[in-house]
């Protein structure tokens, strides 16, 4: 365990072999590279924070990160997974929050993200291997007007380019199970592609259990979901069910879903709204475009 303290910066860029990184008080700029998995404790900084793990099987387990410096970013880059073992929080003061993982980004425990105007980017499959999902359970992502982008791959993520990709463990490309994604007037982009599998009922992008994706003012929401090849039934592009909701105010909502599956696969809908209710709405005159192509 390394506990940083004082107001100066910390710059440890070698192949460190640390298990836990924490902080005491408010430190300056933080740059830290680790060659193995790393658990983060509570760290407060007033300048840029950059934390990486570089080993082939090296995870980052989130803790409490707070960047109080106006406009300064938090950037995390994991050799394998970014994950949680307990409730966690990530906060910036109008600074960008960027999470890169060569494999998946998995919030199995509730996490709260607030960037107060800064952009939020979750980039799985950063190594471009075609494997790396995003799975969020009961989490709250609030940008306060900054863009929120969820996708994958080694390049720049834009609408329809750069997909999070389902894995053997997390088969939806993007799964949001409960919780809230709120851009507060910023734009939201999500790109997800399901895993290649025989498993039934998987989706490129899946909103379940009252997951709420929303923005206000002129913010737009664009979601692209692809069902991958495989013989499992109900391989859907986009699924919104069991109280899942997508809403905007004046900005457009664009949903593009393509179902997958081959052989005997059935119910491979492009866009599916069902369960005990899935909702898509604009409250202030924003345009809505839903395009579904069956597999």
Give me some keywords for this one:
295 residues; mainly beta; eleven-stranded parallel β-sheet; 33 strands
Quick rundown:
By secondary structure, the chain is mainly β.
Written overview of the protein:
The N and C termini lie far apart (50 Å). This protein has strands at 2-5, 10-16, 20-24, 26-27, 30-34, 38-40, 42-45, 49-53, 60-61, 64-70, 74-78, 82-83, 88-93, 97-101, 105-107, 111-114, 120-124, 134-137, 140-142, 148-152, 164-165, 174-177, 180-182, 188-193, 202-208, 212-214, 221-226, 235-241, 244-248, 253-258, 271-274, 278-282, 288-293. By secondary structure, the chain is mostly beta strands. The protein has no helices and 33 strands. The strands form three sheets. Strands 2, 5, 8, 11, 14, 17, 20, 21, 24, 27, 30 and 33 form a twelve-stranded parallel β-sheet that branches. It has an eleven-stranded parallel β-sheet with strand order 1-3-6-9-12-15-18-22-25-28-31, with no helix packed on it. A ten-stranded parallel β-sheet has the order 4-7-10-13-16-19-23-26-29-32, with no helix packed on it. The mean pLDDT is 94. The protein is globular and about 60 Å long. It is 0% helix and 51% strand.
């Amino acid at each position: 365990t390394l506990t940083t303290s004082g107001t100066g910066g910390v710059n440890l860029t070698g192949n460190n072999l640390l298990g836990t990184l924490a902080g005491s008080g408010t430190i300056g700029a933080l740059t830290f590279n680790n060659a193995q998995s790393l658990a983060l404790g509570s760290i407060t900084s007033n300048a840029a924070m950059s934390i990486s793990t570089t080993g082939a099987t090296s995870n980052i387990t989130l803790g409490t990160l707070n960047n109080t410096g106006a406009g300064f970013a938090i950037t995390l880059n994991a050799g394998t997974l970014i994950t949680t073992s307990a409730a966690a929080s990530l906060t910036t003061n109008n600074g960008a929050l960027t999470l890169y993982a060569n494999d998946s980004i998995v919030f199995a425990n509730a996490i709260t993200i607030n960037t107060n105007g800064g952009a939020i980017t979750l980039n799985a499959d950063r190594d471009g291997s075609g494997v790396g999902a995003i799975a969020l359970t009961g989490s709250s992502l609030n940008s306060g007007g900054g863009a929120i982008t969820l996708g994958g791959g080694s390049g720049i993520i834009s609408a329809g380019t750069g997909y999070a990709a389902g894995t053997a463990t997390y088969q939806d490309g993007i799964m949001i199970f409960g919780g809230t994604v709120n851009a507060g007037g910023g734009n939201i982009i999500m790109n997800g592609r399901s895993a290649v599998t025989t498993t039934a009922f998987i989706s490129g992008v899946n909103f379940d259990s009252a997951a709420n994706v929303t923005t206000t003012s002129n913010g737009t929401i664009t979601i692209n979901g692809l069902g991958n090849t495989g013989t499992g039934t109900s391989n859907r592009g986009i699924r919104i069910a069991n109280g899942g909701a997508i809403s905007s105010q004046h900005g457009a909502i664009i949903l593009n879903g393509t179902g997958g599956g081959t052989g005997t696969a059935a119910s491979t809908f492009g866009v599916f709204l069902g369960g005990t209710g899935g909702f898509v709405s604009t409250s202030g005159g924003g345009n809505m475009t839903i395009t579904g192509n069956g597999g």
